[in-house]
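I would like you to sit down with the pair of lines that follows and say whether tokens and residues agree.
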Amino acid sequence: MPITRPTTTLGRLRAVFAVGANRARRVLGASEDTPSEIGQGSAGGLLQESFVRRLERLNLLTRGLVTQGLAGEHRSRRHAGSAEFADYRRYVPGDDFRRIDWNAYARLDGLFVKQTEARVEVPVHLILDCSQSMNWGTPNKLGFSRRLAAAIGYLALARFDAVSAVCIADGIKDRFPLVRGKAQVLRLLAFLDQTTMGQYSRIERSLAEYCEGTSRGGIAFLISDLLSEDDWQAGVIRLLKHGMDVVVVHVLAPRELHPMLDGEVELLDAETGDLVELVVGEDARRTYETRARDWCDEVGAFCARSEVGHLRLDTTVELEEIFLDQMRRQRVVR
């Protein structure tokens, strides 16, 4: 069915997402256990106009006050003329007399001026794992992660924050430069749709490389299955030392937590190509599921110790539920 050229920004967004959905329908016929040619996944969550409008009313939360930046939506330690009250201080010659609070003068028998908070933008860093292990599952983990990154990016640009994006695997594969304004949404979507796949994941090395070429500060979203050849936790610590708030988004396909295997099977490692032959029974499945839960709990415990935001997401969950429920409960958005 041909796609007509929409005239509104929302219509153009819909068209871009619809193209991704059409690609998804062509690849989902492949076996789940064999990586597809970059499975896109359905973009249905962002096709709903009501969800896009709700995104525009949300705001990303930072863990502390921002010290510098351009005009935006986040609280700053700086004071400036705005509508939001921050504190009082005593009047000194040269202050704008229009800022004197006469109610405070009546109560305290002194001249006090109101201080208000500056509002600044915060750089939002979208760090997307594009290794082969992400290109698996139904729904596909990489397709799900791309839609999630697109939604976060749209939210940030709509709320006057700056957004950059990077695709990582064994190092940085692609970069999207820092941009501002909703007019840049389509460029961001095109980047996320065309990211280069890598073979295997080295998150620590990739994040070290990213920090070297990126200014300090902002909010970093690491979107990954965390199946890394090196220490992904050390990579997260590096982001923290680089002055960033960090949110680890742990993406898993349902069958990674509850595999439907039985009898004699061959398992192919999507990243290394290694083949493992084994016999799977009820005891083996139970042991695997216990270890998978323990691993997920370890990820959550590390994030809690490090004061890092943490979201564990099943690829079957709708984006609307993620943003309006899970992200709110984890204080990632408000």
Notes: Residues 1-7, 14-45, 65-83 have pLDDT under 50 and may be disordered. The domain at 9-62+122-329 is CATH 3.40.50.410 (Rossmann fold). The radius of gyration is 23 Å. The chain is about 35% helix and 25% strand.
